[in-house]
Structure formats: C-alpha cells, structure tokens
Amino acid sequence: MARVTLRDVAVRDFRSLAEETQRQARRQLDKLARHPELGDELGHRMGVNLTGYRAVHFGRNRYRIVYRWIRDQGEVEVWGIGKREKGGIYRMVGRRTDDAGEK
Predict the structure, then answer these.
(1) Could you list the residue range(s) of the whole structural domain that residue 56 is in?
(2) Lowest-confidence region among 32-36, 41-45, 73-77, 78-82
(3) What is the number of other CB atoms lying within 10 angstroms of the CB of residue 4?
(4) What is the average pLDDT score of the chain?
(5) What is the CATH number of the domain that holds 90?
(6) Measured in Å, how far apart are the chain's first and last C-alpha atoms?
C-alpha cells in the first residue's frame, strides 16, 4: 500500500470542504493508498503544465484530488483538493507547484 500525504495547502483544502464532501474525499484517498495510479494523467490542463500529476474525480464529478505518485518512495503526494469548476483546481495546483519549484 502507498503512503498518502497531503501538502499543508491540501490539508487546508480538505478542511474547507463540507463534512459530506470530506467523507467522499477520504474514500478517494483510501483508494489511492491501494491503487496510486488510479487517477487520470494530467499533462497540460487549462493552460497549466501538470505533467507528472494525476487527478481523481469525486462528488458527482465536481471535485478533484490532484496528486503526484512518487513510485520509488511509495508515496501519493496530494497537492490540491477542490472544485473542477472552470479548471480552478488545475490553475491553483499549477501556482502551488510553481511557488514550490516542483515543475
């Protein structure tokens, strides 16, 4: 099983979700621990280069968990949890990875 870690910003994302949405997100995180390659590979989304990142959908396809699977460390590193609406989650994660120098 993979170790699932949330970046500090992703912890804040998670805490900002409604209780039911948190439960749905937690179920997806549990799935990622068992199947870390479950998410769709992102590549370029909404003008943002997210090559190497993946996303799983939940909440009737309205929400995304954007993460990076670090195979050699056995770690799923979550960079963002939020609404897909107008690609906002992808732009947000793109800014975060830029700020962290993770591209």
Answers:
(1) 3-100
(2) 41-45
(3) 19
(4) 93
(5) 3.30.2310.20
(6) 26
